[in-house]
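During the no-cost extension, the postdoctoral fellow (Dr. R.K.) reprocessed legacy sequence entries with the updated structure-token encoder. One reprocessed record is reproduced below for audit purposes.
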Amino acid sequence: MSPTKAQHFDVVEAGIPQLQQALAEGRVTSRELVLACLARIEALNERLNAVASANPRALAEADALDRERAQGCLRGPLHGIPIALKDNIHARELPTTGGAIAFEGLQPPYEATLASTLRDRGAIILAKTVMTELANWVAGAPTPMPANYSALFGHGLNPYDTRLDPRPGFDDGRGALPTGGSSSGIGTAASLWAASVGTETSGSILSPANATGLVGIKPTVGRISRYGLIPITADQDTAGPMARSVTDAAILLGELERSAPDPNDAATQRCAVPPIHDYRPFLRRDALRGARIGIPRAFFYNPVTAPGETAPRGGLSPEQAQLMAEAIELLRREGAEVVDPADIPSVVDPDPASNLLCWPICTTAKGGDGGGSIVFKYGMKRDFNAWLASLGPRAPISTLTELRRFNISHAASGATRGTLKYGQSLLDISDEIDLEADRARYEADRARDLQLAGALGIDAVLARHRLDAVLFPGASGASLSARPGYPTVGVPFGFAPLNPAPPWPAGFEAPRAPFGVGFAAGACSEPRLIALAYAFEQASLRRVAPQF
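Re-encoded structure tokens follow.
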């Protein structure tokens, strides 16, 4: 049956509990859900470019799950529900490319633990999502790669505004309204499937969720197995849910998490698993009552001048600041104790050596990399080469060096598509790392990351003010929480006009960008953060679906 001939069932904005209720009542089958999603993909994907590949066995899997349902066998809350995975997660029947031409058509010899776990629990992996090539560790300065661009698939576009950027120098096919980090929220926001799994190293779940009006849960590193994911660095990599509601995201988080540690990922011993890996008991409407929520004004809300610098950094636009004022007032109305300000100690420290703003992720070559952490570029060479080795004979290349050479030999000159539209400066600086000679520097930088972002950052502000969580505007706290591997739950809250530099040309109406809030705390705090986020979501109900 063609997807356009599917029995009508409106999947638009349908939540996972609503889908399960319809399945239980016989109003729809999993086959019909898959057909409805495929019909929506057929209608919208040419406009959005959200899909990297579709599962050719999705209907057969749906039929099998329908038969199980008819026999009274239900595997869990995702039984028969179509979801999508980012295209850096191994899944059988679908290629795993990371958006790189070198990996086009790659069928890894094993499946990611999280993909197998989802299948065991009844989810239908319908598709892979487009992503920024290799999770945006390919091209940095002077020509950084736009979010959700890859040499293999081109540009993905935000469903809230699919107009292209008209500004000279930016008119290369990217959207006027950005899509956020390297995970794609495009198809989830547009209801091409029920929810999706992204990955984050530093903002790539929270940023696209914020940019496409979704709930994003960036878990504690280790809560979900990373086995079978194309890495940047195991120090910070994690997978996590992206969904249209806190309820759906909480359900997906529980179904991603194994009941026991994964022997293929030692980090999965870090956090205790909730009973029957279920986060729904934490969806409490009254969770904000009595909760202490900190407001990190310096840098995240208000501009600050870092030690040794002359110009201020950070802060919000007037429209974003108004949204956050409304969010804080909502917290108070719901009975939260708001601690304002509750600045991050390492952000306001007057000593440059102890100030996080003076310690960025290093994106420069040796000789000019003394002022930032080399954890990313070191980890990429170590972990990417290990991932290539895990592919065995199926690996099209065997080292990061070979990937760089492949890209050079398949550059754009005269080709219909090329590997180096934006260069590969980040791959270059990773490949110059010597894993033995540079190990001491890496270990020192990793320790400093943990100190500034963890002990003197999130941990310090939570302890100093006895906080349950810190409230960040949008995805602005992602990099801070990412370094020690701490969780955040992002919730949509409104829209603010996007006014970039250089400005829009005369006559071009500025896009209105989705904008939300992020509840962050220390390691393994997902149950409390989900409770706070759910109460906030239910008190505000600010998410608006994209219109087509």
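Confidence is low (pLDDT under 50) at residues 1-6. The chain has one domain: 3-540. The remaining legacy entries will be reprocessed before the final report is submitted.
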